[in-house]
Specification:
Low-confidence stretches: none
Mean pLDDT: 85
Distance between the termini: 45 Å
Radius of gyration: 21 Å
Number of helices: 4
Shape: flat
Order of helices and strands: HHHH
Number of domains: 2
């Protein structure tokens, strides 16, 4: 019993440290992304103060919608699904896509009030560039960690 308790406590500390590492890593990536976007868009202090709350709110809401869609897709049991259930699920997917499009359109409208249209267009390119750099860094680190393995 004592060994089980010690093992359980060790596992809890390990799980907590891994989740803390993941949270720290996510915060670091978010900080890098913020700095990268601010620099590449050449945001003034005034623009940045207005831009980031809009951007962060949009990101948070989109992530929430993605998570909800993922849960819906993950819970699908195709084998036992009826045609009516499939139709209902498709309608839910269509509604979700409409909500995402509306959210994006509102986001663009809100951004147009604080930064130029040119910077909004540039924002998409900058976000893509950041994702590409992060993915390349991930591949590089993974390759280094794995040695010469393919």
């Amino acid at each position: 019993m004592k060994n089980t308790l010690i093992l359980f406590i060790c596992l809890m500390f390990t799980a907590i440290s891994f989740s803390q590492d993941r949270m720290d890593r996510n915060e670091k990536i978010k900080a890098l992304k913020t700095a990268y976007i601010t620099e590449k868009l050449n945001l003034s202090k005034t623009e940045a103060e207005k831009f980031w709350p809009i951007y962060n709110d949009f990101e948070e809401r989109m992530n929430k919608m993605r998570e909800e869609m993922y849960k819906d897709r993950k819970s699908i049991d195709i084998e036992s699904m009826t045609e009516d259930q499939a139709n209902s699920l498709l309608q839910k997917f269509k509604n979700s896509n409409t909500q995402r499009n509306n959210l994006y359109n509102d986001y663009i409208s809100d951004l147009q009030k604080v930064i130029s249209s040119k910077k909004i267009v540039l924002l998409k390119k900058v976000e893509d560039d950041f994702k590409r750099k992060m993915f390349e860094e991930y591949k590089k680190r993974r390759h280094q960690k794995g040695g010469d393995k393919p």
